[in-house]
């Protein structure tokens, strides 16, 4: 996994080298100070030569300045490295999310995914910068200071070295605990985000049902869970900080006592004693670093694991390697013994064979849950059939690129999804980059012109999140305008007017009829009056297609359709 992590550094090699080099040089300078002090006390001080002392001080000042600059570079450019890696990962994740299929989104919560792309990646960025650098510097400082201490007095150095196993043990102990806790923390945060996302997204339903108390209780559960895990993390952090503090003081104290003894015995000069004390401080500094690593590394790794979970999910609907651009299709559709079921469930679409000629309008009727919507969603390959094959103009749809296939198919559904933004933005979504004239033409054909002109802001009117500021009919007209602009040869109208009142429905039927002109149209409707004029009506039941034909044929046949029709209109007269 670490190797995969490092592949993300590749585009930023130069930045990494710059940051790393500066950090190493700064680390070496840090090691040099105690040595300098040692010589200052032992050699310059007894000579009492002020000029020399001033020169030495000036040289030290220079080194300090250099170190300041290096620290600036490490902090700023180093973080830039982290931020770049994080941004790149975020981009890759977003790109990947665009490719994942309906099945994936059926099974994942929006809030969870948002948590991954925002919070998890933040932590990865932090580690990407600090991780390798801190580890290396820690190692370098540890070894370097030890060698220097050996140079001053090997006995004292070896004695000091004895505490290293304790340091390593403490680091490993706390690190392991932290990784686990952070994984818990992130999934708690994701649950928490998902809860808020669902609540706010559905706040109108919550208030309509007056279920605020219920929602509050659910939220409190997640909030409490998050608090618990967070507290657990802080508890471990507090433990690790305190233990490290104690260890560091112990080392200082130990060196002080032993050093004094060596000085008294005449084995250590004052300068060496001071230098050694300072070096001992540098020596244990990695504990501090390791502390920081204990804080950030497990966070980053936990985040990276969650990141990989998404990145390693292959889209179950994707372009075949040899897929070609479908170009502009005529819209001659053939379902050939198509079977499909959701998530290994029983088949929802059962061995359906159906031919729809270009330009034909075909209507699907049947009980709710019979699989009409599902059947239509196989055509743009939102889901992949488990058996059988679908072709358009004689070509298997799997041989076309997804983008080119979907360019040829337009869908108008019952619940229109609009984006927050202006009316213009939402119409233009049907054809990005459409000019003003085309947008107005589409609006006109969807009979939306008067409405837009009546708005103080016209086309620039903001319609609110998901179009909340529009009526159902207006939303549907916007969706139709969007489709006029997209102008696909194949059209799917899935209960497009079912949510509307009768009067609006009648008005919108006209626009839909105009939209359907010259296209292969698949209509799903439960109000039979709206589909009487279809070229063919197909009755779909859980067992498959039970009958098909023109309206009048089916009514006379006296089968399923005639019973449905009778139920809706009470008699077999034409209404
Ligand atoms: P219709 O449009 O004819 O009313 P659908 O195609 O919407 O029927 O649904 C057919 C069946 O598939 C239903 O039993 C429904 O519960 C199930 N179903 C629909 N969508 C999904 C989904 N995304 N995941 C799992 N099952 C689904
Ligand atoms: Mg449906």
From TrEMBL:
Q: Which SMART domains match?
A: AAA
Q: Where mainly located?
A: membrane
PROSITE patterns cross-referenced by the UniProt entry: ABC_TM1F, ABC_TRANSPORTER_1, ABC_TRANSPORTER_2
Q: How does it sit in the membrane?
A: Multi-pass membrane protein
Which UniProt keywords are given for this protein, alphabetically ordered? Answer: ATP-binding, Membrane, Nucleotide-binding, Transmembrane, Transmembrane helix
The UniProt record lists the ABC transmembrane type-1 domain at 17-299
Name under which the protein is recorded? ABC transporter ATP-binding protein
């Amino acid at each position: 996994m670490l190797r995969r992590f490092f592949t993300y550094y590749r585009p930023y090699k130069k930045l990494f080298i710059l940051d790393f080099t500066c950090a190493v040089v700064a680390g070496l300078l840090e090691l040099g100070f105690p040595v300098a002090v040692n010589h200052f006390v032992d050699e310059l001080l007894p000579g009492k030569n002020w000029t020399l002392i001033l020169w030495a001080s000036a040289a030290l000042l220079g080194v300090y300045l250099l170190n300041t600059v290096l620290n600036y570079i490490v902090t700023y450019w180093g973080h830039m490295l982290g931020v770049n890696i994080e941004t790149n990962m975020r981009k890759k994740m977003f790109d990947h999310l665009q490719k994942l299929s309906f099945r994936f989104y059926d099974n994942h919560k929006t809030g969870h995914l948002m948590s991954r792309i925002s919070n998890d990646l933040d932590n990865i960025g932090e580690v990407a910068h600090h991780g390798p650098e801190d580890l290396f510097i820690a190692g370098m400082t540890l070894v370097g200071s030890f060698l220097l201490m050996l140079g001053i007095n090997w006995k004292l150095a070896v004695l000091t070295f004895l505490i290293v196993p304790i340091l390593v043990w403490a680091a490993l102990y706390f690190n392991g605990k932290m990784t686990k806790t952070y994984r818990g923390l992130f999934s708690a945060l994701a649950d928490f985000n998902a809860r808020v996302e669902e609540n706010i997204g559905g706040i109108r339903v919550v208030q309509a049902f007056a279920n605020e108390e219920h929602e509050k209780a659910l939220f409190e559960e997640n909030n409490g869970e998050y608090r618990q895990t967070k507290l657990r993390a802080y508890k471990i952090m507090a433990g690790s900080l305190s233990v490290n503090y104690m260890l560091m003081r112990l080392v200082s104290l130990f060196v002080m006592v032993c050093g004094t003894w060596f000085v008294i015995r005449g084995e250590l000069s004052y300068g060496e004693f001071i230098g050694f004390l300072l070096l001992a401080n540098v020596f244990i500094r990695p504990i501090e670093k390791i502390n920081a690593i204990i804080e950030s590394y497990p966070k980053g790794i936990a985040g990276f694991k969650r990141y990989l979970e998404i990145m390693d999910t292959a889209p179950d609907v994707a372009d075949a390697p040899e897929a070609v651009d479908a170009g502009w299709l005529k819209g001659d559709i053939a379902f050939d013994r198509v079977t499909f079921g959701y998530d290994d469930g029983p088949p929802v679409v059962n061995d359906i064979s159906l031919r729809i000629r270009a330009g034909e309008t075909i209507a699907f009727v049947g009980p709710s849950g019979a699989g009409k919507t599902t059947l239509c969603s196989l055509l743009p390959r939102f889901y992949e059939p488990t058996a059988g094959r679908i072709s358009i103009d004689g070509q298997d749809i799997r041989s076309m690129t997804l983008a080119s296939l979907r360019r040829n198919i337009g869908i108008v559904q019952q619940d229109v999804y609009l984006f927050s933004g202006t009316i213009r933005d939402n119409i233009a979504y049907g054809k990005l980059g459409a000019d003003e004239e085309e947008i107005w033409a589409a609006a006109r054909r969807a009979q939306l012109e008067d409405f837009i002109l009546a708005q103080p802001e016209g086309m620039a009117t903001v319609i609110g999140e998901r179009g909340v500021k529009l009526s159902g009919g207006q939303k549907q007209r916007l969706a139709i305008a969007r489709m006029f602009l997209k102008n696909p040869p194949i059209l799917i109208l899935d209960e497009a007017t079912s949510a509307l009142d009768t009067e609006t429905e009648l008005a919108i039927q006209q626009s839909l009829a105009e939209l359907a002109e010259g296209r292969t149209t698949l209509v799903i409707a439960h109000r039979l009056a709206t589909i009487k004029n279809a070229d063919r009506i197909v009755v779909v039941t859980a067992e498959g297609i039970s009958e098909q034909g023109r309206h009048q044929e089916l009514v006379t046949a006296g089968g399923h359709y005639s019973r449905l029709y009778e139920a809706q209109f009470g008699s077999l007269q034409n209404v």
